[in-house]
Write a structure and sequence with these properties.
alpha/beta, 6 helices, 7 strands, about 180 residues
Length: about 180
């Protein structure tokens, strides 16, 4: 089973990347092969509706990596009540060929109070491309006080939710993708 993580943040010390890292570790501990596509290290264009980007080899890398995955973890900061433009653009650079039948877990990071706006947006986009979004989702509000200096979650209940999220992603990927 291969799970690919994508964080829709370009910040160096982003809470989104910290949360994705924790989720990926938990999924790996359950036996899945994991890979993070670090968008900060990739050169990707704005999607223009086309499907050929020969001058951007990282588009092919993105598409091939996701195509080979059984599941995805998508993490986004919430900006103005929605997912980041970075994550939306990355999803728009792919199509049904890469995204259909993937099992997806969604995570959102907020500076303010926790809500489900960006999570709902990601769920709608993934449903549109025929992916399977697990019911468990993570929203980390007031992210600036959710992590310690080492990047670990401070709240034990939130950490337990990430464990349940990881378990659900692995179990549902086994069921829906027929992989072990």
């Amino acid at each position: 089973m291969k799970i690919v993580g994508i964080a829709g943040s370009l910040r160096n010390e982003s809470y989104t990347h910290k949360a994705l890292g924790i989720a990926v570790q938990r999924v790996a501990a359950l036996g899945a092969e994991v890979e993070i596509l670090d968008l900060r290290k990739m050169k990707l264009p704005f999607c223009d509706g086309g499907d050929e980007f020969p001058e951007y080899p990282d588009v092919k890398k993105l598409q091939e990596t996701v195509k080979q995955a059984d599941g995805l973890i998508l993490a986004t900061p919430e900006y103005h009540g929605g997912m980041s433009g970075v994550l939306k653009n990355v999803l728009d650079l792919m199509s049904f060929e890469e995204l259909s039948d993937k099992v997806v877990g969604n995570i959102s990071i907020l500076g303010g109070q926790s809500n489900s706006n960006s999570l709902n947006q990601m769920r709608i986009v993934m449903r549109w491309v025929h992916a399977w979004v697990i019911p468990e989702q993570i929203a980390i509000g007031q992210a600036w006080k959710a992590f310690d200096k080492e990047g670990k979650l401070l709240d034990a209940k939130l950490s337990e939710r990430v464990d349940k999220f990881a378990q659900s992603l692995v179990e549902n990927t086994k069921k829906l993708r027929g992989v072990g």
